[in-house]
Amino acid sequence: MSDVIRKNAWVAGLVALLAVLLVVTKLIQPTFGVSGLESIARAALPFAFATAGMAVVVIVGGIDLSVASMMAVCAVAAAVLMERMAGVPALLIVLALGLVMGFLNGALIVLTRVPDIVVTLAMLFVWEGVALLILETPGGAASDWLEQSIRGSFLVPGIPNALVVTIICVAVVWLPIRRSKLGLSIYATGSDELAAFRSGVAIGPTKILAYSLCGVLCAFGGLSLAALTGIGEPVPGPYLLASVAAVVLGGVVLGGGRGSLLGPLIAVYILRIIRTILTLLAFDPNVTTIIEGVIMVGVVMLGTAAMMRGAQQ
């Protein structure tokens, strides 16, 4: 029992912080209620998928700077496809597109042996170009059912559909893998690549599959963007640094091998509620952006320092 508490202490702390921030929000804005929770959940949706994808890659010991660009490609692809065909086939094509993009990222990293930060930085520009080839300007149209799927509450007021969609999609992608041989290989590779290799783990295929999973989660993120706006937007949003910050705040160790997807997802909502609080306090939007940036950079710096300290021990 004590081991369970110790292993989940960080996540429990995040849940407590989230609860405190919700109470603070209610005190600042007494009318904050179900509609406010739904609004936060919808706004957090693309950030949550970007963070989940980034978390998988960080756990395997890498990083993917192209998550926002992959989401943009999937968003415009979804908007164009759903304007011309039924929603479900379009959905499957977009998910396959995300899988292929993630696979290409991972394959390039493994085959060229160029550092992941360099490869994914290059692919960031490649996927940006692909998004602009699909749609030069915002356009297309998301299916009505996709837009409605993230609105309102699930069964009872106070449980936003957007939150339920996030949990289901991430669980469908990650839970079957988390305890499988592939999941254990992802953690082993991130923890100690040489030791994992000596234990029989196929390092290259494991990394490629981890990046492929990231691509699938980014595809869900692109679909959520199309659902939020009703159209496809070819310009990537501010999801890269935010996803890294949420991953670190969520307890995933930069360098790999430790952490889960639950903590980062909770961290996404913490960061979004902080933004809401700053808005309710009537902070200048530019000042709000500065504060958010300072928080994100601070979290990443602390995570990097913790990683370096752990490597020296």
Helix and strand arrangement:
Elements: H1 2-7, H2 9-28, H3 34-59, H4 67-84, H5 87-112, H6 116-134, H7 144-148, H8 161-178, H9 181-191, H10 193-198, H11 203-229, H12 240-249, H13 262-280, H14 285-312
Helix pairs in contact: 2-13, 3-8, 3-11, 3-12, 3-13, 4-5, 4-6, 4-11, 5-6, 5-11, 8-11, 9-11, 12-13, 12-14
Into how many domains do the coordinates divide? Answer: 1
Oligomer: single chain
**Number of distinct beta strands:** 0
Number of helices: 14
Structure description:
This protein has one domain: ABC transporter involved in vitamin B12 uptake, BtuC (Orthogonal Bundle), CATH 1.10.3470. It has 14 helices and no strands. Helix 9 packs across helix 11 and helix 12 crosses helix 13.
